[in-house]
Design brief:
globular; 345 residues; 12% strand; two-stranded antiparallel ribbon; alpha/beta
């Protein structure tokens, strides 16, 4: 009998001054990912620079059982944010202890940072010549300290294949969901998102931080229109129909929609249709014309155009990649290195 596949090991590096919320993100997201038989797809472990207590930025410490030697066993290493990075943050250099810890990481290990955890990857040289992001409030300082890094302040996260970085706080959730989607497909990632009660995918083309006051609670939103759209993705959709759902003029609706989502209604609908097409390509054997109709693109030609733009590959190549990856349990990124934008909370 064929032995069961070994779960992908994620090791989270807990540093002094860490943010408890961000430390918990990999455990929460990767820990909810299961295969069809209900078996965990990831094993998530935490290590420190030494076993024992690690001080957080809250009024409590955490106890870490493993030392840095655990990094040598990782398939993916995640570095969450810390407010006490010392010379890493001030001078862009690693301490001897941190450098010794990172030396345990095997070549080819996937590296992930959340928020200011990117300072650690940059100080170690992992981000030289690569796209990267961090919290918008630290981006200017980050770029000055690490001029060799291609810093993008207007994205939720970056994916450069084996090195991925995210902006602050909730963007770490988006990045971890992206990794689950990349490894195991949209269906698994969407189920994790449902269990975590977060959106399965935040849209591209948005800025991390939008300098505007919060809308008044009594003002109408565009939530009902978006729900209405999701039930009709396969139908032709007109902006006037969407505005009518909220009893707004087209102009007011368009402005409010962009304020709330960061993108235009048309961009949002295309994103939802690509997501629907992606699920159909992964989960069904429907011909391309049917996938195009069911996802709202109408024709196979239109489907190819939008999927190619969004994912970097044709629908046929995406389906083939997913099927092949399903046999190995690891879905390669169909679009390779990418930069994903969205509003960081």
């Amino acid at each position: 009998m064929e032995s069961e596949k070994k779960a992908h090991r994620v090791v989270v590096l807990a540093l002094t001054g860490l943010l408890p919320f961000e430390l918990g993100i990999p455990h929460r997201i990767f820990g909810r990912a299961k295969d069809p038989a209900g078996r965990p797809l990831y094993e998530i472990l935490t290590c420190g620079l030494a076993p024992g207590p690690v001080r957080t930025d809250a009024d409590f410490a955490i106890h870490v059982e493993h030392g840095p030697e655990l990094l040598a066993t990782a398939d993916t290493v995640v570095v969450p944010a810390s407010y006490e990075l010392g010379p890493v943050h001030e001078e862009g250099r690693l301490t001897d202890q941190l450098a010794a810890a990172l030396a345990h990481i095997r070549p080819g290990t996937r590296l992930v940072s959340i928020c200011t955890g990117g300072y650690v990857l940059a100080a170690a040289g992992y981000l030289d010549g690569r796209p990267a992001t961090t919290h918008w409030a630290s981006a200017e300082h980050f770029q000055r300290l690490f001029p060799a890094v291609r810093v993008d302040t207007d994205v939720l996260y970056t994916d450069d294949g084996d090195v991925l970085t995210s902006a602050g706080v909730a963007a770490g959730v988006d990045l971890c969901l992206h990794i689950v989607r990349r490894d195991h497909g949209a269906a698994v990632a969407n189920e994790v998102a449902r269990r975590t009660v977060v959106p399965p995918h935040r849209e591209g083309g948005q800025a991390q931080f939008i300098a505007r006051p919060m809308p008044e609670p009594q003002l109408a939103t565009t939530t009902a229109a978006r729900a209405w759209v999701l039930d009709r993705l396969h139908e032709p959709l007109r902006l006037t129909d969407l505005a009518r759902q909220e009893a707004m003029s087209v102009r007011t609706f368009t402005r409010r929609f962009r304020e709330e989502s960061g993108v235009s209604p048309g961009q949002w609908i295309v994103g939802r249709r690509v997501e629907r097409a992606r699920q159909l390509l992964e989960q069904t054997e429907l011909p391309m014309e049917q996938v195009a109709r069911d996802s709202g693109f109408g024709t196979a030609q239109s489907l190819r155009k939008h999927v190619q733009t969004a994912l970097g590959v044709s629908p046929t190549a995406y389906r083939r990649t997913f099927r092949a990856a399903g046999e190995t349990g690891n879905l390669p990124s169909p679009d390779g290195p990418s930069v994903i934008a969205g509003p960081a909370h």
